[in-house]
Design brief:
It is a single chain. Helices cover 25% and strands 40% of the residues. The chain is of the alpha+beta class. The protein has one domain (24-165). The longest helix has 17 residues, at 4-20. The termini are far apart.
Length: 168
């Protein structure tokens, strides 16, 4: 049996490790811009999770998402990764996005991209499997704003695809 001191030390270490990074989550915010006929997307991922995903996907030993030597190369890695992990079907048609770049904010990196030439957003299907192949407990939360409605959903290994309807 563990002594009381050993139990307290174990509890303190476990609590500290859980506090450091208790879960794996990303947040994708998308908003339909009526004037530009586009879906503007920002995608927030923890930097350590993103590093693991990029290393795994691109077969790299090291990726620095905090202070990269070559920010353009980092954005190229992120763009290639997201193009193969996040998919959009708008009004029944597969749509590709244009990746613009990313920026660091605290312990996360915001990635920005956009889908152009959307005349009217009636239905949006999102598949977001980013980081799910790296972390079994990965959750990807999506928030969609269109036609004065906001809808949200949590994607995970059991549910990787969600369809949002915005019929008026």
């Amino acid at each position: 049996m563990l002594s009381m001191n050993a139990k307290l030390i174990y509890l303190a270490v476990f609590t500290f490790l859980t506090w450091l990074h208790p879960f794996h989550v990303s947040v994708l915010d998308a908003e339909y811009n009526y004037e530009k006929h586009s879906l503007q997307i920002s995608h927030r991922m923890f930097i350590d999770d993103l590093e693991e995903g990029l290393k795994d996907y691109h077969g790299l030993e090291y990726v620095d998402t905090t202070e990269p030597d070559d920010p353009a190369r980092l954005d190229s890695l992120i763009s290639g990764y997201l193009e193969n992990k996040v998919f959009f079907v708008i009004n029944g048609q597969d749509k590709k996005f244009k990746y613009y770049g990313s920026e660091l904010e605290g312990d996360a990196r915001w990635c920005y991209y956009e889908i152009l030439e959307i005349d009217n957003l009636k239905e949006l299907q999102i598949t977001n499997v980013a980081l799910m192949d790296v972390f079994d407990d990965q959750q990807n939360i999506v928030h969609i704003k269109a036609n004065d409605k906001i809808q949200s959903y949590k994607l995970d290994k059991r549910t990787k695809v969600k369809t949002f309807n915005f019929d008026e």
